[in-house]
Every structure is written in C-alpha cells, then in structure tokens.
Fold:
Amino acid sequence: MTHRFNLVKRAEASHSYGFVMLFVALTIILAVAIPEDSPWRASIVVCQACAAIIACWTSDAPKRIFRIVKIAAVLAILGAIGIGLTGSANSISGRSVNVLGVLLVGWVIIRGITLDIRAEGVRGRAVAGALTVYLLFGTLCGFVYGLEETLSTKPVLHANNSTVSDDGATSANMYFSFVTLTTVGYGDLTPTSGAARATAIFEALVGQLYLVGVVATLGGALGKGRGGLMKELGSEPAAAAPPNSDA
Structure:
C-alpha cells in the first residue's frame, strides 16, 4: 500500500504530458488498426476521453472545467458505444465524435501549457505538451478527411497505386494526414475534392510553422525561467542604463 501511494505521489509531482501523449499515440494506432465496421472502434473514443481527463489532471485544471470534461468524456464514450453497436462508426455522427474529442483534448492541453508557462516559465512538460498538440493536430486532420468523405458523394482521396486504398477508411485518412503533416509527400494518395485539398494545404502549412515557430521557441526557452520565453521571442524589456559614475 505504501509503495503504491508513493507511486501516485511521484506521478502527481511529475505532472507529465507524456501520459497524454501515450493515449494520443494509442488513438492513432487504434484508428489505423481497427476496421471501420468493428464495434471496437468505440475504444478510440475511450482513449480520447482518457487523454482529456489526464490532460486536466496534468494541467491542474479548475474543478469546474475538470467536471465538464469528465461529463463530456462519459457522454462521448456512451455515444461511441451506441454508434459502434449500430455499425455506424463511419457515419457523420461517429466521425464528428472523433473530431470533437480531439478538439477537447487539444483545448485542455493548450490551456494548461499557457498557464504553466505564465507561472513557472518553460519546463520540460510544456515542450512535451506542445509535441502532443502536434500529434493531435495530425490526428484531427485525419478525422476531418474522414468527415469530408462521409459528407461527400465522391471519394476525397485517390489512390495512385495498389498499395493503398481510397475507400474512405480511417486508416488511409490517418496515413495521408501524417504524410501531409510531415511534408513527406509519397504521392500514393492525393486529394481530389476542394475541401480535402484545402485541408491538406492548411495542415502542411500549420504543421511546419508550428514546429519552427512554437516547438523550436519553447525548446530554446527551456529551463531559462519565467523570462526565458520573452528572451527567446526578443521582446524582453531593455535593461536600464547604468548610472554615470563620473557625475
């Protein structure tokens, strides 16, 4: 009992976004691995709900926000189970739940990072949180491609060879999303609709600007205290001139 208590206290003291990143990575893996018609796709929403709750705990969210997130997580899980049992995981409602789940986790993390930096400057968990947001953005765009596929009467992605599928499966959408986010550009999948092309352009631009602007800046300010970020941005107030000793 004492050993378990110490482990909990140690986890509370660390408050690392690494746990959130773990559930985000698990969400991506499950979205790719689980077939579209499987009732087990509800586990994707379970991972998103766990990520949101852990993000609240990590960022010391107020009880009011924590309560709202827990209620939303329970409702999302129940809705996902119902959608999975009816075999409509790739419907508008099913894919909308995934999109809203990612947005909820992202909002909680960004809020926590902002408050943490204001209070104590840039620390390791802020950088980990920023990298988690990067993964969430790729996940969000993957679910958005799927939502666009559901809303469209034609496929939004076209397969240029037989190694991938363009049938609108989440696995293909998630694959195309992270290939676009990292600007690898294999060319085996290409967007065919205007909405998908706009999403791909937005994802590539925002993804690269986020890495260069946000993650790199936070990395440069890591461990430099509350004023480290201001120094990294070049907006630190100029120091007052020393008094003239000859006067």
Residues 5-14 have pLDDT under 50 and may be disordered. The CA atoms of residues 114 and 126 lie 8 Å apart. Residues 16-225 form a domain with the Helix Hairpins fold (CATH 1.10.287.70).
